[in-house]
Design brief:
Blueprint lengths: L1 E3 L4 E2 L3 E8 L5 E8 L7 E6 L12 H14 L1 E6 L5 E2 L2 E2 L10 H14 L5 E6 L1 H9 L5 E7 L8 H10 L3 E6 L7 H7 L7 E5 L10 H12 L10 E3 L3 E2 L8
Parallel strand pairs: 5-6, 5-9, 9-10, 10-11, 11-12
Antiparallel strand pairs: 1-13, 2-14, 3-4, 4-6, 7-8
Helix pairs in contact: 1-6, 2-3
Protein name: Alpha/beta hydrolase
Keywords: Hydrolase
InterPro entries: AB_hydrolase_fold
Length: about 250
Amino acid sequence: MSTEIRANTMLPARREEITLHTADGLKLIGELALPESRPPRATLICLHPLPTHGGMMDSHIYRKAAFRLPALADLAVLRFNTRGTVSEAGRSEGSFDGGNSERFDVAAALEYAEFHDLPNVWLVGWSFGTDLTLVHGLDPLVEGAVLISPPLRWSTEEHLVAWAGSGKPVHALIPEFDDYLRPDEARRRFAAIPQAEVIGFPDTKHLWVGKAEAALDAIVRVVAPDVPTPLPHTWDGPSETRKVTIVDS
């Protein structure tokens, strides 16, 4: 019997609560979701939106990625709370530092992925997480970046030029009605990275409410191009309904 995949549908995966250890001595709360019975094709390290405005590892696109993509696309999904950020899973140690000390958080996630031999690592940033990606994420382990609603708030021309020089792919998913950066301006700004692809999403806003499926399809097309998209909206097999409590930071 087919089950409709809804917002709180959790498909089968091997899920593990993890702790990331930063170089400045903090412990960060996280989760790794792996395909249930196959090795992952690729790994998503999810960098969440601004925690001072409700961003966390349970932000809805990342929650749905962890609930669905191990089963639907054979992807590993690593999500975590940056320093001082709280979710239902708990609060990471430390305090928000405006994207500065968060460089240690990004490094800790990459070190975890490397130590556990997670394959084909991609950074997937959303809003604040895109600045963390562009400023702190240019690492030899990283295959490329997917940027969801990038505001380019702390990212400078220097960071864009560095990504350009790396040759690593950059894919920017830009809502038509974004609060900070809309498609035409995004194409102008990302021209500094010749290999960057800017994709506009009609009738979409910064928070992608009601549009998570479009974001997940776009991520899968980039990191696992052999997987057909759009992803299925129904599932034949076991599943759970997992209501997540959204915790206010």
